[in-house]
Amino acid sequence: MRIFKRAVRTCLIAFSGLFLFSANQYAQKEAGKQIIKIGGFVRHEVIYDSYKIVDFREGEVILYPMKERLDEMGNDINEVDQIEMFALQSRVNVKVEGIEALGAKAMGVIEGDFFGNTNSNMNTLRLRHAYFSLNWDKSALLFGQYWHPMFVPECFPQVLSFGAGVPFHPLSRAPQVRLTYNLTDPLSVAGIMLIHSPFRSQGPADAQRNAGIPDMQFQLKYKTRNFLLGATAGYKVLQPRIVTENNLKTDESIGSYNLQGFLKIKANKLVAKIESMYGTNFSNFIMPGGFGTNADPALVDDYGYTNLTTMSTWGEVIYDFDHLSLALFVGHIENLGPTDTYYSLGYAWGEDLKSTTRISPRIAYTKDKVQFGLEYMMTNAVYHNLAVGEYTVISTDDPVVNHRILFSTAYFF
Fold first, then answer.
1. pLDDT tens profile 60-117
2. What domains are there in the chain, each with its CATH number?
3. DSSP state, 87?
4. What's this model's pTM, rounded to 2 decimal places?
5. Could you give the 3-state DSSP secondary structure of residue 352?
6. Is residue 14 classed as helix, strand or coil in its secondary structure?
7. Pairing verdict, β 353-367 and 370-386
8. Label partner for 199 (CA 20 to 30 A): which of 52, 103, 112, 165?
9. Burial per residue of 208-227, b for 16 or more beta-carbon CB atoms within 10 angstroms, e otherwise
10. Which tens digits make up the pLDDT trace of 347-362?
11. Which of 345, 334, 394 is closest to 202 using CA atoms?
């Protein structure tokens, strides 16, 4: 692991030197005037749920139904009708472009919404994106907070509900440096270095900072007007603690990887998408996964760590009429369990979740910048009963199911 860290740091220094050298080859010049564009939308939602769910922001973001909880008479306490209204998905963005710098077209974007960073400050302004890019003929550099590479803007679930299909599809934005190079007109490759904040992995908040190296991601895309095919692969390292319970310095860390393939096809008014993901510790994507220890922490002081493995697949079909859009989203995710001996530290989403599946049709009518949408979501969840301590499946429960109906209205500007 130390050799890997040194290699990464060497790459960081080399990358910085290359960028500074390239920048020195150009004199900054201004071509035309800055163009400032303001956009966004105001959205209101009415949401009904038939079962209590694992969620964020009081139900705005739905993950999966909670585990069954029976009373003394055998009634499921979590089977309860719930209703909510939200406007916190509303957002505003500012885009600035129109000048050249270092021989490239420069662009900057700042975007915020009212989702808040925690449940306690929902309905307050939150930073979504803040980045600028330099675009040359064959290459581009991006600096700032933008989508994690596992979130592909050209291929993601365009569901009405907040979260873009989470937990079946990754939801994560991250401060990063991204270099993209066009090998040919349709084929491009990108290398990205990023830090997880504000979408951190479960566990200590400074785990990635302690590791001393960024998350490293690589992406390949083949893109034409009506076809997109691509893959993403990445590796991150976490060091959850620097001192043991017995006050001894420790450098125990854990690495995890992510793999992704995606495909999008457009044919006249029909759009079809499919995406599959496989990897370890997906908790920073708001997906089931995380890590624990490989030894009983009550018996071992300087223990190591073990990841949970996750596999997910989703697909979406959209058909657009003049103003009417019909669509169907289907997703399935599996918790494949630990890669080694596993004791829980509470650093995981859905530790006892076996699988969850969602089927979600929707209809939306959009005209004159006003949209009305109706979406139905059937989400089931299957849970394991685990032995206390070591991760051992004792039994598997029957599925629990939530039925969600969402009615949304929006005005775009």
1. 999 999 999 999 999 999 999 999 999 988 999 999 999 999 899 999 999 999 888 7
2. 2-25+41-412 (2.40.160.10)
3. -
4. 0.88
5. coil
6. helix
7. antiparallel
8. 52
9. beebebbbbbebebebeeee
10. 999 999 999 999 999 9
11. 345
